């Protein structure tokens, strides 16, 4: 069973469709009921939640835990791009900077909640869809309340995904659960890219091939970051154990504050 978040459009929709066509059992997540119905017609199981709100992430996890006792692959793909207006800072319903909330914190919490299913299915995989655009997190102002820039917000949320990837891979070493991150392709013609006004450089098929390679990989590589299909080095902060500890502590505080 493979769970893909953000599966109703763009890269996630392509990957979900390819997996269903190849006979895989897929759980497709999204917010749009009509688009989820289209995936259900293809043969995917569907779940609906707005990942901007951690209580909905929790409800999503509860739903999957109630339906299934194993999960082979979790693909954290849902995200928010830079959009057309970089200057406007937005917050999630939980008071978290919106890109950090959706691109990173939702996947962090969902993964943590679903670890029992992944462990039960080991060998299992977590695939985090990150980006080559990465900015170090300023832990004195991680929510960018003093100086906001949309590109920086996006880039630090994507680096946070990679830092979480390395941290979780170390935690799960020897369990049979691997955790890897990738930048699938550059400027694919997704909704996020169209909203930014930028032109596309890569195809969704190229990005999808990179994601599918990690989903189907038979090796035990873990804690790695890939640019497309090539193993690469992320921003230097990802290799800093203290920065990763700071991110872990920040994440735990934000989740505890949201869920009470």
UniProtKB/TrEMBL annotation:
Keywords: Oxidoreductase. The keyword Lipid biosynthesis does not apply. InterPro entries: NAD(P)-bd_dom_sf (IPR036291), SDR_fam (IPR002347). Signal peptide: none annotated. The keyword Oxidoreductase applies. Belongs to the short-chain dehydrogenases/reductases (SDR) family. This is SDR family NAD(P)-dependent oxidoreductase. It comes from Amycolatopsis acididurans.
